[in-house]
Every structure is written in C-alpha cells, then in structure tokens.
Write a structure and sequence with these properties.
mainly alpha
Length: 406
C-alpha cells in the first residue's frame, strides 16, 4: 500500500474511533498499533518504543507541565481570580466581546504544549453573559491562542525552520507577521459574527488605571510564570512549579479546597491522553512512517508545489506537534526553498501548510485538552474551525499564485 494511502487510513480510523465516542487517548493508542502494522513494525519494536516513550524525559516533563497548568487554572478559577480579571477587563476594553479573545492571545505569547488550557477558564468566565456553546468556547480559546505561531520568535518551530533554511529568525518573523495579523482578524471576524455586541459602561480614567492593576494582581501566577521564562530563562516546568508553590503559600484557602484543586488537576484521563500522544508520536517516527510519507510525492514541476504542501501538512496533521512538521519536512524541502538566501514565498507556503495541519490535527494537545475542558464534541469544533483555517490557507495559496506561479 502506498505511504499516502497508509497515512489516509491512519487518519480515517482515528476520526472513526472519535465518531464512535472512543476516548481520544484510547483512540490514539489504537492508531499507534495500526501505524505499526501498516509500516511493518515488529511487536517487540512497538512495545520497546512505546515503553521508551512513556518514560522519556520529554513525556514526564510534558505531563508535569500539563498538571501544573491545570492546577494554576483550577486555583485561579476556584479563588475567583478569573472573575476579577474579566471584571477588570470590562473597565478597560470598549467592546466586551474582545474579552473572549485577549486573554487567550496574551497567553499565546508563552510557548508551551497544551498552553490553551491556561486560557480556557478565563474564556469560560468571560463567555457567561452570552451562553456560548462548548464548541464555540473551544474555538475562541484555541484560535486566539495560536495566532502568534506564524511570527513570534520564541516558538521552537520558527527557530528550527530558520536554522534549517539558514536564514535569520527576524527575517522569518517579518515575512510571516502579516499572517499573525490575518489570523487575528479572521478570529475577530468570526467572534463578532457569532457573539452580539454588548456596550461597555464608560469608566473614569482613575478607575481604568486601577483596573489595569487589578488585571495584573488577579492573575499574578501567569505573569510570574512568563517573567521567569522570558526574563530569567527558567525552564517552563520549574517556572510553573515556582508559581504553583507560591500560590499555595500565599493563598488563604482551606485545606479541603486545596485538596479538591489538586484532585481536579491530576486525572487519569489527562495522564492517558498525554501518554497516548507521546506513544503515537514515537511510533510514527520509529516505524519510518513519517519518512515514507514526506517522500511519497517526488519533487519536480508542479509536483514541487504539491510537495511543499503535502509534506508539512501530512506530518502536522498526523502528529499535532509543531516541531515535528518542521524538523521532518523542512530538511526535505530545503533544496527547493533554498538555504542562506531562500525563497521566502515558498518558505511561507510550506510553513503555513504545516501549521494548518497542526490546527486541524485531532492529536494536537491544545485542541484535545481544550475540547475536553469545555466538554465539546470535536466534530462540532471542526464545523467552526474549518472555515477560518481555510481562509488562512487560502491566503497562503494566493500569495504563492500571485508571486510565483503567475
């Protein structure tokens, strides 16, 4: 069976399992086994690689990060911090609908796997006046969390891409910044199209000043985490741990409430899903599946443009991991894009193609965990997500046609 048909089978089976209401973690484990079978991986190799994935430092770090992110979200939600933040934003933002976007976009400046989980409780709080569906809350939190990944220089996928193509990261960010603006504009357009306008009450300047202070103090653990990571270069896991520890020390919460927050933050479902994603990623790599897929379309002629799309898109869709589509597909595409003095139009098209795959991937942790948080059906989220993703990808295709094909 050709590699692309095998990849299609892996995706279709995963979607079918989700349609049958199979837990995403279990579905990914089943798809890992299917991948091993289709790409002729022995049982012993499958078990060995799955075991290595479960105990890998990357997996344990990710699990620790996720638990601490969930803890901070639950702590801030239980303590009423998000309610105070939303209340303060109402005093400084003229259009209250933007409160559904600003916190997630702000948190998006902090590169972290499943980072959308940090903004989900804020969106939950801000969405109360409109009674939005779980799918719409998932979309808004998910979309605005990811508007920066086209041009924010702290994202590893951008750094890797710049290194592989041998071009300054600043040049990459400059060329792709219009897509951050586009993504933000598209998100705001869908937000305003769905959510009715609610006029904000006029506030005196002094009260607005106090509101800015209240925004900072209400979610200080998030600001502290960002400062530790960006200013003091503390590893993300330890920055989150420090913020979590300080939240416990400085909080007047009773012991019973603290224990309840911990219970909500460490659940078997979260552990299973994290483990399943990392096993799936390892099996895709170790079985040779990704190598076969990205080499399935030979370069040359119009097929070159197909390859620029298919290779990063397929890897992004299968793995849901930003670094994967760059690390696997871009070395293959480097001779086409060029190194040192690359064709930035082709670079942009390949990057957006891969990131579109990321946004649509059911294995993407941000999508999986956010949908789980809001108890949204993925099919309902996709019904909303497909149009804005299509607009962003259509813009990349238009740039390619105007500047290279015509």
């Amino acid at each position: 069976m050709p590699a692309l048909l095998k990849a299609a089978a892996i995706i279709v089976v995963l979607l079918l399992l989700l349609k049958l209401k199979i837990d995403l973690g279990l579905a990914l484990l089943a798809d890992s086994a299917l991948t091993a079978i289709l790409f002729h991986m022995t049982v012993s190799a499958f078990l060995r690689n799955a075991g290595q994935a479960l105990v890998a430092k990357e997996t344990l770090d990710l699990l620790g990060i996720l638990i601490l992110v969930l803890y901070l979200g639950n702590f801030l939600q239980t303590g009423g911090h998000f309610g105070r933040m939303v209340g303060a934003l109402k005093s400084v933002v003229r259009d209250r609908r933007l409160i559904l976007a600003i916190p997630s976009a702000f948190i998006g400046l902090l590169p972290m796997m499943a980072g959308a989980m940090m903004g989900a409780p804020i969106v939950e709080e801000a969405a109360k006046p409109w009674a939005l569906s779980p799918a719409w809350k998932t979309f808004l939190n998910y979309w605005f969390r990811h508007i920066w990944e086209y041009s924010w220089p702290l994202y590893m996928n951008l750094i890797l891409a710049a290194l592989i193509i041998d071009v300054p990261i600043g040049k990459v960010c400059l060329y792709q910044f219009p897509f951050t603006i586009l993504a933000a504009g598209v998100g705001v357009g869908f937000l305003f199209g769905k959510v009715p306008y609610r006029p904000a009450e006029s506030e005196p300047a002094k009260k607005k000043g106090r509101s800015f202070v209240r925004i900072f103090t209400s979610v200080w653990p998030i600001f502290l985490t960002i400062i530790l990571i960006f200013v003091f270069r503390v590893a993300m896991l330890w920055a989150l741990a420090a913020s979590s520890l300080l939240s416990q020390i400085l909080s007047p919460m009773p012991v019973r409430v603290r224990l309840d927050i911990f219970r909500k933050s460490v659940t078997p479902r979260i552990i299973l899903l994290t483990a399943a994603v990392m096993v799936f990623k390892r099996i895709l790599e170790a079985s040779g599946a990704l190598d076969e897929i990205v080499r399935a379309v030979p370069p040359g002629g119009f097929a070159t443009y197909i390859l620029l799309f298919a290779a990063p898109f397929a890897v992004g869709l299968l793995t849901g991991v930003n670094q994967a589509f760059v690390a696997i597909a871009f070395p293959l595409l480097a001779p086409i894009i060029g190194k040192g003095n690359p064709d930035m139009v082709l670079f942009l098209f390949a990057y957006v193609s891969g990131f579109v795959g990321i946004l649509l991937s059911p294995a993407h942790l941000c999508l999986a965990f956010t949908a789980d948080y809001f108890q949204a059906e993925l099919k309902d989220v996709y019904k909303i997500l497909i149009a804005p993703v299509g607009i962003v990808f259509g813009a990349a295709v238009l740039v390619l046609i105007v500047f290279r094909i015509l």
